[in-house]
Amino acid sequence: MTVEIPPTFLAHAARGAAWQEWLDALPRLLRDVLTGWELTPDGQARHGECAIAVPVRTPEDRPAVLKLTWPHWEARTEHVALQRWHGDGAVELLRADPHHLALLLERAHPTDLTALDDVEACAVVAGLYPRLHVPAPPQLTTLSSCVARWTDELAALPRSAPVPRRYVEQAVSLGRALAADPATDGTLVHTDLHYTNVLAADREPWLAIDPKPLSGDPHYEVAPLLWNRWDDAAASGDPRWAVRARLDTVVGTAGLDADRARDWVVVRCMCFALWTLADAEHRPGGLTSDDRRALTVAVAVVKAVQD
Predict the structure, then answer these.
(1) CB-based burial of residue 154 (10 Å sphere; 0-12 exposed, 13-18 middle, 19+ buried)?
(2) Which of 75, 222, 234, 250 makes the best surface tag, with the fewest CB within 10 Å?
């Protein structure tokens, strides 16, 4: 019952001691869960930034995926969101061990929404919103508490930071107002619902995966659809038009308030810039070319939604 852990995932040990310790223990954890849940490996393991996914078959010969995630706060309530959705718009949760962040999930197909035109893909995601945006379970962290902390960190950015100060100050003002708004909490939101986190499936045409759930505001969901697939937006010859087409499609399809969605895009893009800068501070050599590109995209999206 040996599963080869991809070398590219093992390379995450370079991220620090916590990663190294978890990766050292991962082979045993994988064996223990496979044995305890009577799962049979059924293909090569894949991985993202923080989790490994192993195709398996259950004792009933059902195709499934075993997902093991590096411990971090966003992953600790993933099973709560999946339980709440119960397969309605998202992959079904078959079994969970929250202590070890082990999930047994319905198996979807490798095809994601990058197979569609970006605007068509935005319509698919917006069509999932009404099913996923249900009352939040009480275990979830509130978006208001997060955005209050993030805006304080944004306000502390030095004026020499390589992002326009006017957008930083705008995001701080908007973020503080949104943090104080009761409508900012109460709805289960995925928070990372973009093109590669929606997969084709047998049970339905498209299902969401990999939630990073919060008790939040549906309008908070939109931003990742704008900054992802940036090469497609740039290739259109008019990135501003491409971003606005995506935004208008999501807002119109989901029936969201355009002004509130735009405000959250500004806040999220500047927070994205903040985290990019914070990561670079702890990395030898500082900002990389990828970091600079991420900052450029964040600023471009803020401009596009407000021009």
Answers:
(1) buried
(2) 234
Tokens 């805006």 -> residue: 151
* pLDDT tens, the chain, 307 aa long: 578 999 999 999 988 999 999 999 999 999 999 999 999 999 999 999 999 999 999 999 999 999 999 999 999 999 999 999 999 999 999 999 999 999 999 999 999 999 999 999 999 999 999 999 999 999 999 999 999 999 999 999 999 999 999 999 999 999 999 999 999 999 999 999 999 999 999 999 999 999 999 999 999 999 999 999 999 999 999 999 999 999 999 999 999 999 999 999 999 999 999 999 998 887 788 899 999 999 999 999 999 999 7
Map residue 163 onto helix, strand or coil: coil
Query: 47 phi and psi, to 5 degrees?
Result: -155, 160
CA of residue 85 relative to chain centroid, distance: 17
What element of type H or E holds 207?
Answer: strand 206-208
Whether residue 263 lies in the annotated active site: no
CB atoms within 10 A of CB 229: 21
Of these residues, 42, 97, 192, 291, which one is catalytic? 192
Looking at the DSSP bridge assignments, the partners of residue 64 are: 56, 106
Q: Where are the domains of the chain?
A: 7-106, 113-306
* Residue found under tokens 């070319």: 289
Token code pair at residue 295: 């900052």
Element (H, E) at 64: strand 63-69
Looking at the DSSP bridge assignments, the partners of residue 112 are: 199
* Domain over 7-106 is classified CATH 3.30.200.20: yes
Say which CATH architecture domain 113-306 belongs to. Alpha-Beta Complex (3.90)
Provide the H-helix boundaries in the chain. 7-10, 17-36, 78-85, 118-132, 143-155, 165-179, 223-227, 230-235, 239-254, 258-281, 289-306
- 3-state SS assignment for residue 256: coil
